[in-house]
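Q: Convert this sequence to structure tokens.
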Amino acid sequence: MKLYYSPAACSLSPHIALRAAGMAVELIKVDLKSKQTQDGRDFYQINPKGSVPCLELDNGERITEGPAIVQYIADLNPAANLAPANGTFARTRLQEWLNFITSELHKGFSPLFNPQAPAEWKTLVRATLGKKLDVVSHHLAAQPYLLGDQFSVADGYLFTVLFWTRWVEIDLQAWPVLHAYFQRIATLPAVAAALEAEGVKA
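A:
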């Protein structure tokens, strides 16, 4: 398999999932500004959406969209316990969290990375994100991971999104529960290995 990624972008989530599942993968770096891969290809020819992550399977099939990719990875190795079994209520809970992270948190960060976004708008965006982070913090105050006692692909995705706070003037220490969660997730072997491979530090 090949994972098209950009360091510390949302592709970090499936990268973590692949390592947690014990799967070999070829990492192919993408410059998101030029839309060129590290080997000089036009990334639009690989993923017309022009965004990472993109997982290319050995049969040539490609999957885009992080929540879909991480569930696919989890199902390839059920023994890794990265996702509850399909058809269970617990799987629905996983999908609920993946959807919340992708729609309410991940997309919520986008304006903060836009250099043309007015400062006033960014202030409002941070306030809105803060309320969403309050929800997650309250949930994690009662359990170590989003689904309870077991790390899942949703935690890998949440960790990835929380990673971005350092670049957008959001102090994660304002949420002690989330700060402690982030620090704890960063020490997991699969997470640490993914960060090292991408050349970034928690």
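The first strand starts at residue 2 and ends at 5.
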